[in-house]
Amino acid sequence: MSQDPWLQNHDATCRLAQEIAENIHERNRQQRTGGNPAKINMTLRASLQKLKQNISQLREGLLRTSSSRRITQAEADRRQNLIDDLLSREKQLNSTFKGEVSGAETSRSSLMTGGMSGAAANPWLINETEETRGLSFGEIKQQQQRIIDAQDAGLDALAAVISRQKTMGQEIGNELDEQNEIIDDVAHLVDKTDDRIRNETRRVKLLETKSASCGKTHTVQSSKLKTPGCCRAN
Predict the structure, then answer these.
(1) Tell me, what DSSP letter sits at residue 34?
(2) CA-to-CA distance for 52 and 156, rounded, in angstroms?
(3) Residue numbers of the chain with a pLDDT score lower than 50
(4) Nearest to 79 by CA among 7, 155, 5, 142
């Protein structure tokens, strides 16, 4: 898998900073031995300018990737810390180049890691954490990759949990829809039952009215039939 372009640029900037530190050390050595450091000073000015441009590009690249949400917030914070370290390193290198750090041995201890020539040493001696103290660039890179892998694994686990919760939510939603349909059917049946009860109630009342009316008519007719008999009896 190809490495992230931003991390590649960061590694290149770190190598440039290490190269500047070594050139400053060489410049100081020539000054102590009576040599002419004019050429190396020109190289250092150009390299420091290039370092400044690289840091600016890293900052702009981080702004683009974080705003487009192509990296996590934790990774964005980690990369911002890397940029802050580079800015501190750039300031220290500029100060040393301009002679604001006194003493050749002080400059050497501020810029080099134990004086090992040809080794990929760690230039971040100032404000360096215990986790990276004494590690080479390759080891720090491997450590960062392990952290990224752990973050990726955590994100995968989180995605799996979210996926399960989404499925559960959909199932609950489907069940609620079924329950709502059942409730609607029950409500419809209740409405129909109410209508039938009202209709039957009206029919019963109508029958009672007719029955009462028929009873009265029968009583009147019976009375009329009985009345002439009574008169004859008299």
Answers:
(1) T
(2) 37
(3) 100-109, 111-126, 230-234
(4) 7
